[in-house]
Amino acid sequence: MDLTKRFNKNLDRIEVSLIRQFDQSISSIPGILRLTLGEPDFTTPDHVKEAAKAAIDANQGYYTGMAGLPALREAASAFVKEKYNLNYNPENEILVTIGATEALSATLTAILEPGDTVLLPAPAYPGYEPIVNLVGANVVEIDTTANDFVLTPEMLEKAIIEQGDKLKAVLLNYPTNPTGVTYSREQIKALADVLKKYEVFVVSDEVYSELTYTEEPHVSIGEYLPDQAIVINGLSKSHAMTGWRIGLIFAPAVLTAQLIKSHQYLVTAATTNAQYAAIEALTAGKNDALPMKEEYIKRRDYIIEKMEAMNFKIIKPSGAFYIFAKIPVAEGQDSFKFLQDFAREKAVALIPGVAFGQYGEGYLRISYAASMEVIKEAMARLEDFMSQYAD
C-alpha cells in the first residue's frame, strides 16, 4: 500500500523554502552569526506580557468567538482608524487570526479556485505562492527590478490586461519583504485608481505598517479601495510578538462573512490569553513600535554605509527591517552558493536573493532585526570576505 500517491496533487507544486534549505546547509557551522530572521530582536513589552498573565490568572482559557474577542476587534478598529484612516466595523468587518500567515491562508483559500491567477510584485516573500498553489491557483509575478522594486500603475495595468478573466486577485505587500520598499500616498492612490477599474480582490499584507521610516505615515490601500481590499496586519513586527501569533483581517462586511468560514475551519479561534495581550498592545501600547523604529534606522544606515563601501548596490529601504543588496561580483549571480561560501568561510548567515524568486537572483537579503553588536561584527567579516574580489 502506497498512500503517498493519494495526497493532494497540488502538494507536488510546493517545496521546502529555499530559506529553510539554505539554513539547513549552514546550520552546523559553529558560532555562526545570523542576520536572517524576520523577527525583532526586541522583547514583547512588559505591560503586554502582564496583560496576558492577568488573563491566565483570571482563568481566561476558554474559546472566544470565531472572529475574536469583541474588545480586541474594537481596539483594532480604533487603532487602524487613528493610524491609517481606515474605517472597519468591529462587529462584522474584522477577524482575529493566528498570525498574518493564517490570515493570508484563510483569505486566499476563501477567494481562489483552481485555475485562477494571482498577480504578485516581485521579488516577493516566498510564503505567498505555496498557499496559492495548494488550492490549484497560479501566481504570476510582476518584475519590479528595473524600477528599484517599485510597482508602477503602468506595470500593474499591463499585467491585469494580460491575465484577463483568469485574474482573481492582486497581492500586495508593503513595506515589502525582502526589499524594504514602501509607497507614498500619491503612489497608493495611483495604484488604487487602476485596481478600481477591475473586478478583482486586492489582498494587501501590511504587517510592517508600523515600521515605516518616511516622514509620511503608512498609507493603506484599504483607504482608497474599501470595497475591494482585504487588509492583512498583525502584531508580530510592530510589538515584537512573533510567537504570540495574533493577526488581523480587515475587510468589508460582505467579504468578511465569507472569510470567516475558511478561518473557522482552519483554526476555530485565536489563542485567548494572546488576544488579551493584543488588546493591551493596541491600546496602551499603540506606539510601542516607535523606540524600535529609532534603533532600526540606526542599524539600517550603518549597514548601508558599510556595504556601499564594498560596492554593493542598495536601494535604501523605507520600511520593514531588511536590506536587499545587489552582489557586486560575477560569482554573486548564484546567490545561494555565494552566501554558502561566505557562511562557511566567515560564519555569517544572510539570505540568498533567489529565495525570493527568479527576480531576486544576484541579490542578498540582510535582516537588521539583530543587535548592533552582531551587525558590526557581521559587517567586518563581510568586508574581509569581499576583499578577495577587490581590483
Automatic annotation (TrEMBL):
Domain Aminotransferase class I/classII large: 32-382
Molecular function GO labels: transaminase activity
CDD domains in UniProt: AAT_like
UniProt cofactor(s): pyridoxal 5'-phosphate
InterPro entries in UniProt: Aminotransferase_I/II_large, AspAT/PAT-like, NHTrfase_class1_PyrdxlP-BS, PyrdxlP-dep_Trfase, PyrdxlP-dep_Trfase_major, PyrdxlP-dep_Trfase_small
EC top class named in words: transferase
E.C. designation(s): 2.6.1.-
Record-linked PANTHER family: AMINOTRANSFERASE, ASPARTATE AMINOTRANSFERASE
Name of the molecule in the record: Aminotransferase
